[in-house]
Amino acid sequence: MSNNLKNRQIVLGVDIGTTNIKCCAYDESCNVIGEAHEKITVLDPGDGRHEIEPDFLWDIFQTTVKRCLLNSNLNAADISCIGISTQRATFLTWNRKTCEPFHNFITWKDKRSEKLCEQWNSSILIKILQFGSGVLYFFTRKKLFQVFSILKFTPAMVLTRLYWILKYDKKISDKIFHDEALFGTIDTWLVWKLTGGKVHATDASNASVTGFFDIFKMEWSKIVLSVCNIPKKILPTVKNTCDSYGQTLPEIFGSSIPIYAVVGDQQASLFGAGCYEKNDINCTMGTGTFLNINTGSQPVSASKGIYPLVGWTISSNTTYMLECGLHDVGTVLSVAQNLGFFDNPSESCEIAESVADTGGIFFLPSASVLEVSI
Fold it and tell me: Is the pTM of this model over 0.85?
């Protein structure tokens, strides 16, 4: 550690996105001292599947953090704490004793549950649920009923992909029902690995996008777990966003580092953009493009395709948000670049502004899912 950094509070922030992982070291004034990043390889085995190999992700996570420390002229002992932001709704199941994964990470862009979603959305049971919830909302004005009245299942929900595994992969489902498995999104699995299996936890921002977390009661939904036959014992403890998630094993980085924050990437973007007040809005453009609105201390339901989520929980005080998004904006731009439409994505703005109008033609950059009705 350089002399001018002695006795200063240095924090590491790690962001695991869909295509990149980045680690930055910040001083107490939020100045970046050093950083490092690596590319994430997403596997595409066919049939709409999108996966990440767990050992690969673990290796590049360690490599990125170590390179950041090296680039910052720091040692792990110089770090006050680490915070982790991750892509959401990408999950894994693994052996609770050996930590051996039962499959690759199934990412939020995976489509294996698409037919299952179509069956559910067209079923009489779901239509009755939607109609009944609409009636109950009309008389009670309870937001929970409004959410159920516009409910639509999509492959982006962890619920549908986890149910697909339980239904179609007998080996894994047997492990799950015989108490040999644990479930977690990327944040949960990383915390589990970093702490040597001592902490199995997530935060409410990540839990809220699974499809089986009740954001009104702030707990795993007993009804959804029961209907979908998902054992609660495989699920992580839900903690505050800013909370103690244990310490990293000293042998990983050379010294233990306390883990004091875990959060979903879009929620982290909303917070990082300074959107602390109700009605503050943030738009994040990455692999997907997401529009997030801070709705304050109460969840607010809106129209089809726009659902309330947990933004963050600090000192047990929860901030909620609304979110809508297009999943493939970054992907479509990469395809356009590979086709030679432009050399750099930044040129797309100049190209778009080079004409007075489009003659009534609109292009929606989504190769997979449109969350919002157009």
Answer: yes
